[in-house]
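Internal tracking record. Fields below are filled automatically when a chain is submitted to the structure queue. Please do not edit lines marked as system-generated. If the sequence contains nonstandard residues, flag them in the REMARKS field before resubmitting.
Queue: standard
Priority: normal
Entity type: single polypeptide chain
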Amino acid sequence: MTKVREVKCIRTRRNGIWTIVKVITDQPGLYGIGSASDYHNPEAVIKVIDNVLAPALIGREAAQIENIWQTLYSTCYWRNGAITNTALGGIDVALWDIKGKEAGLPVYQLFGGACRAAVPCYAHASGSDTQALADDIRRYLDEGFPVVRCQRGGYGGGGFLSTGKATRPANAWGDGLAFDDEEYLRQIPEMFEHLRGELGPEPKLTHDVHEHLRPQSAVTLSKRLEPYDLFFLEDVLPPEQIAWFREIRQQCATPQAMGELFVSPHEWVPLITERLIDYIRVRVSKTGGLTPCRKIVGLCETFGAHTAWQEGGDNDPVNQMAAAHLDLSSWCFGIQEENHFAPEEYDAFPGHARLEGGHLYVDERPGLGIDIDEEKAAALLDPDSAATPRFTAEDRRADGTVVRP
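SYSTEM-GENERATED OUTPUT FOLLOWS
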């Protein structure tokens, strides 16, 4: 039987946020790759792989994916953490890549074959004002995207008061924009009223709240957006307050998508089994890889939910390809978040998924179909940029209270 001989981590992208795991077997030329990328803690993930998971993996039979996942899941004793999940996810995807190569089949064929011809994606439209946003939405619709996310401005998507409008204390912390729930509740329904008036009822539109709202405001927003027929409302609550989805479900029918910050089955299982959300949006690597995500697919199919695996601008082509294989093979697939990469980044990942006309297409080679050119990947990395700490946007209310993303 094929056994694992070596595990190595390849850090790449200019700012060093991508970590690709390469699991090398004792068979000549046979290896697999997976994504263990973490925007904020790449070095921590690498340490977990090098010091904990790799020593426990080397010498094991590469085909025993379920057994390996269950073993490594509890290797660190404490489990369901973002760092350990990401490390485990990179290894798990690499093992599926190996299994596909040994079988001579794309990974989605190992999952039962394709349920669809390609993977429909949703685009990210934005604009400094509502008219600019409408123009950006039209651009993506013309390109062939079946669904478009609508954001007013940048991270947070609206609800910010300028210095002159925000009522601040005399000793205010900073003089930047202040987030305000009531302003958000006014702006976003007005935005969709304008968009529906200009674009009509046909385009499928989503909106991402980025978990900014208080729970009561999340309920109110969901109710106010119901007349505008959203495809879904994304991450309207922070993970700590997901029990409030019961209140939302009781009061309106706005479809809910949730999960970008989820790392534990104790977060998504009740939402799916109680039919409180419509789309689960976890990232493949953050849940621990393809093995647990296939179980999420089974839950979704049983309880009427859909998948919409999270990508985002910090994600890498390997995780995108893993998600695409799940998308192709899952009957309960809903929509896939799109991601764009620079030409030199695509060049470092031969066999990457192709995004054309709003749809993803996978390479039909055995395994994931994607590889890494280590020399080109190394050339992408800028050590100075990679050493710079990265932080999430620090949004605050007028009184200085930080807003959780």
